[in-house]
Amino acid sequence: MGKSIWGRTTLIAVLTAASIILVLPSLTDSLPVAWKEKSPKIHLGLDLQGGVFLRLAVEIDKAIENTTLRYADDARAILREKGIPVLAMAKNGIDGFSLTLPPGDFADRAMKGLKEGVGTVDYTLGSVTSSGATIQARMTPGEVQAIRANAVTQGVETIRNRIDQFGVREPQIVAEGEDRIVVQLPGVKDQQRAIELVGKTALLEFKLVDEGASVEEALKGNLREDDQLLYLKNVEPQTGRATKTPIVVRKRAVLTGDTIKTARVNFQSQQGGAYVSLSFDNRGARIFDRVTAENVKRRLAIVLDDTVYSAPVIQERISGGEAQITGSFTPEEASDLAIVLRAGSLPAPVKIIQNVSVGPSLGRDSIQKGIRAAFIGGFLVIGFMLVYYRFAGLVADVALVFNILFLLAGMSALEATLTLPGIAGIILAIGMAVDSNVLIFERIREELRSKKTVRASIDAGYEKAFWTVVDSHVTTLITSMILFQFGTGPIKGFAVTLSMGVAINLFTALVCTKVVFDYLNARRPMQTLSI
Amino acid sequence: MLELIKHTDIDFMKLKKYAFAFSGVIVLFGLYAVFQIYAGRANLGIDLAGGTAIQVRFAQPVAMDQVRQSIAGGGFPEASLQAVSGENIFIIKVSARGKEERMVGEKVVGLLREGFPSNPQTVESVAEIGPAIGKKLRTDAVFALFVSAAAIIIYLAWRFEFKFGVAAALATFHDVIMLVGIFYLLGREMDLLFITALLTIGGYSLTDTVVVFDRIRENIRLRKRSTFSETINLSVNEVLSRTVITSLTTFLACVALLLFGGVVLRDFSLALAIGIIIGTYSSIFVASPIVAMWRGEKMIQVKR
Question: Is A172 exposed, middle or buried (0-12, 13-18, 19+ CB in 10 A)?
Answer without folding.
Answer: middle
